[in-house]
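Query structure, 254 tokens:
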């Protein structure tokens, strides 16, 4: 079957579905210029060691190194704008009664594109919090609201003095419980789950499609390459999300 035929098949299912969950990963933002993690040539983790930069141990050992890495990623992401894939997902939300977008991404391109019902599993790169969460979890800190020496790494929390850190989930950390619970509910109640631009290698996010399938959902994947989930999906739309999602949206309207 051709990609066009698979898109039509996927669109037929979406057209009659009222409960849809979407799981997105770094691939959905790639066409906006945000690097993925595991692409062999330009993925972040092919150039940097995650254990040295994205764990609580790394931050405790060298807060400046980790802070500077996140400042570098923020600089990379600053010019990024939503691509046609983000926009198609925002438009799809308007057509489907119960539409939940679960993202592993720490950028805010889904929000910028106009998606509303978003569950963030891995936090937001543009937010910061006290590393001790001294006023409760999360104790968000606006680092623009006070003076600090930017040459010396992260500022101290204005409430308790502990270092401020990016409000993202690192390896070896638990996900925000409320977000994970909401994601599990959306997955298990979905008639269709779209899995877009994720390698499916990082749990618990990567377990959500399995929960959905167990409860009878049809799984549709969009990815130019096979992922760890491809063998388990019902329909694989092999292509870039910025190209495939607008075609899928258009096919839903016909
Ligand atoms: P990965 O970098 O592991 O995977 C990106 C996926 O996107 C791959 O399967 C690519 O084939 C696919 N891809 C590439 N270009 C694409 C395009 N144009 N359209 C659609 N798909 C494309 O990223 P994630 O699966 O998101 O965790 O990684 C999961 C987690 O691992 C991240 O959230 C992050 C990372 O460590 C934390 O930071 C906690």
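Result returned for the query:
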């Amino acid at each position: 079957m051709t990609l066009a035929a698979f898109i039509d098949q996927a669109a037929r299912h979406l057209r009659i579905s009222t409960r849809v969950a979407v799981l997105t990963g770094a691939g959905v933002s790639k066409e906006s210029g945000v690097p993925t993690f595991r692409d062999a040539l330009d993925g972040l983790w092919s150039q940097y060691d995650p254990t040295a930069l994205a764990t609580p141990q790394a931050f405790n050992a060298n807060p400046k190194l980790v802070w500077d890495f996140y400042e570098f990623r923020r600089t990379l992401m600053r010019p990024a704008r939503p691509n046609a894939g983000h926009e198609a997902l925002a438009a799809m939300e308007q057509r489907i009664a119960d539409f939940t977008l679960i993202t592993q991404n720490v950028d805010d391109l889904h929000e910028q594109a106009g998606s509303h019902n978003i569950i963030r599993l891995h936090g937001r790169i543009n937010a910061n919090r006290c590393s001790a969460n001294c006023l409760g979890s999360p104790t968000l800190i606006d680092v623009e609201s006070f003076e600090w020496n930017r040459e010396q790494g992260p500022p101290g929390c204005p409430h308790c003095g502990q270092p401020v850190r990016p409000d993202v989930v690192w390896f070896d950390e638990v996900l925000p419980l409320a977000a994970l619970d909401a994601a599990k509910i959306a997955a298990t109640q979905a008639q269709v789950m779209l899995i877009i631009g994720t390698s499916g290698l990082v749990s618990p996010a990567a377990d959500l499609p399995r929960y959905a399938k167990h409860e009878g959902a049809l799984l549709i994947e969009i990815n130019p390459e096979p992922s760890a989930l491809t063998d388990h999906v019902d329909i694989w739309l092999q292509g870039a999300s910025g190209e495939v999602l607008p075609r899928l949206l258009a096919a839903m309207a016909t």
